[in-house]
Amino acid sequence: MNLTLHIWRQRNASEKGRMVRYEVRDVNPEMSFLEMLDVLNESLIGKGEEPVAFDHDCREGICGMCGFMINGVAHGGHRATTVCQLHMRHFKDGDELYLEPWRARAFPVIKDLAVDRSAFDRIIAAGGFITASTGSAPDGNAILVPKEAADLAMDAAACIGCGACVAMCPNAAAALFTAAKITHLGVLPQGQPERYSRAIAMVAQVSHEMFGYCTNVGECEAVCPKEIKLEVIARMNRDFLKAAVAGRGNGA
Amino acid sequence: MELDAKIPAGPIETLWDQHRFNLKLVNPANKRKYTVIVVGSGLAGASAAATLGELGYNVRCFCYQDSPRRAHSIAAQGGINAAKNYHSDGDSIYRLFYDTVKGGDFRSREANVYRLAQISVDIIDQCVAQGVPFAREYGGMLDNRSFGGAQVSRTFYARGQTGQQLLLGAYQALQRQVAAGQVTMYPRTEMLDLVVVDGHARGIVTRNLITGNVESHLGDAVVLGTGGYGNVYYLSTNAKGCNTTAIWRAYKRGALFANPCFTQIHPTCIPVSGEYQSKLTLMSESLRNDGRIWVPLKQGDQRPPNQIPEEERDYYLERKYPSFGNLVPRDVASRNAKSVCDEHRGVGKSGLGVYLDFRDAIQRLGKHVIKERYGNLFDMYELITGEDPYQVPMRIFPAIHYTMGGLWVDYNLMSTIPGLYVIGEANFSDHGANRLGASALMQGLADGYFVLPYTIGDYLANAKLPKLDASHAAFREAEIQVACHTRRLLEIDGTRTVDSFHRELGKLVWEYCGMARNAQGLRHALEEIPALREQFWRDVKVLGTGEEFNQALEKAGRVSDFLELAELMCADALERNESCGGHFREEYQTPDGEALRNDAEFAYVAAWQYRGDGQPAELHKEPLHFDYVHPSQRSYK
Fold it and tell me: ipTM of the assembly?
């Protein structure tokens, strides 16, 4: 199949970017989307043009490094699929596709389709952990975790930190990402001592990073490649509110 | 050079405890005066950096990805072994030790493996405390599953994403130390050289992948947790960025490289679908519990699988290995898939694939049972191939998955360069010639959380290191070398892309130093690889500049190192005139085609020393002694 791509090209963070049109011929339907871009890049290099920069690493949907918008939808809009796992058989001959980087003030463009998501690391550093220095742990079975809690924690912990939720949100909110971590740790017995201070600290960092506010639109849930549920945001709000009203978490 | 593994004397059960007591300590108030450089942020690197930060050292941690959370440990599916014996099914530290030494085909060090088995139980405790959501039973206790190469249930897991959850646990501990100011994180930064001053590792030279700045970082010790080199094959289950650059450049600065030819092939990966293929995806080995592996009896049979009648199918593993059948170990399953494909009986467009068929299991157990057991794997397969494995058999083919070889380290995990430590997959120490399932995560975390933080203190307390600054000649020289390397790559302006060279190299290494090797093929590869390398340096085309985000330039640097490493792998494979674990030399097999080990002549670690470009590396041997587990021939008939 043949495709027309319009790709956002931007040399670096300070220069202006623009959409550039490329024709890609003989796309094999068995390819992944990123392999199709590899082929485009090989041909660009052959012609002496600079290849398109895009982030990727594991190419099996778990590292969270890849991601861009395809026709306005994060990761291209296939259920539970990162762009590295999206295959060309889902497209048809003659399709015209628009590829843009994640759009959010907190995710500045580095080059072309690659953006800086270090704000996510700072949100985790603010409180997305359980304080448990190496060597201090009791036996694993000394802490009983009800199966429901373990399953719920795992559902939330599946987040890969790709940033699709932010990119798709009309407010560029980081609510789903932040709430997934607050839920993962907050439903486990081990996470209780820091539960409220964690919610306060992480939410404060989110504002500091200039993400927008959550208005429960739900676009994030729709594009999340790991199908994290909106429910986690409700849990975050509850923990945050409790902490803020009761003045809990100020001491930590 | 005399290789001293520094294994303490005494009964194996008490070695580590005694050794820890004998290690010198650094006074808590003095720890902040030391800077430790940790390269890599996977399970080994992140756990080491976090723990060293907790102890009070100044830590600088580097990764090439945009965040430490992305390291490829994240992709491990199955689980992590620990000798907890929570099920009273006969497990023990000794049994885990025994299984690992035997599984490694008697080419690992007993003392290291015993320590690994001992520490395995602490790892689970640590990870639970951090909030890793391990699978639980209804009573709230930890759940276990069984895994290949063991007769007990000792594998802890978090759905099919154990690696992800363990890595996130280590990453969160690391971020806590970043917030505390103990660790400075340098993402999107690649180590391009090791700096050795007066025989001690004193720092690294890096390139900032966004700005291209070449920088020196000084430290009192350097720790490499930079993973394996499976991408030398181009197609592997590794992430695209995984590379050998850090350990290779340390090798060229004097660290010995051990057993480079020990590479592991995983039998159940999704086959290659075309020339554009960029990586391979693994399907959990557990599928072989219910799937039956077969190929058509006739050569070149193009009929769809469902139209091939039972009597024209060859269930070759069941035929050749009646007692283990489809559950033979990884190396045996892989080699047999290759040989049926070599007979032109492979399936799929490329002919490089075999069927893994669930038809009989679905008939026997019902679709719902299969869905419950393997639903997520079936979904993944369908996502990638577009075929429904409930209807048509899966196609699978072996792929490179893990490298047991790596930089040589002693019992303290220190390389032959004082002050240079190597942890996780980057070192060679614990898996011998073959790694058992669910042991990679165990080793990465054992090294990072529980071994290195002790042993490095002993080095720092004893080493009298002079004060340095980055103006030291050794740093200047390394920076210039890095800058020259980059400039050379950009100035060639040839006609071929980096990927085209990488693909060609991968095919060579796969063909001659992959699942099966022989002297003639290895000699051929040893002629082809230098020729390809010469062509690379004459004809590669890298656009752009070194002062910007330039992914092709990054790749070019990594491939230039793979082009050198490949030669060492072949030299090592040629030198080892026996078959063991993942290293199968066709000349050394039993009459019925099984690996033939030669303990009398080859029970040693082959550690190679760099002797300059164009010079053959020099081989040093560390003899292996088996005082507890006595070498025996593996048989799966």
Answer: 0.97
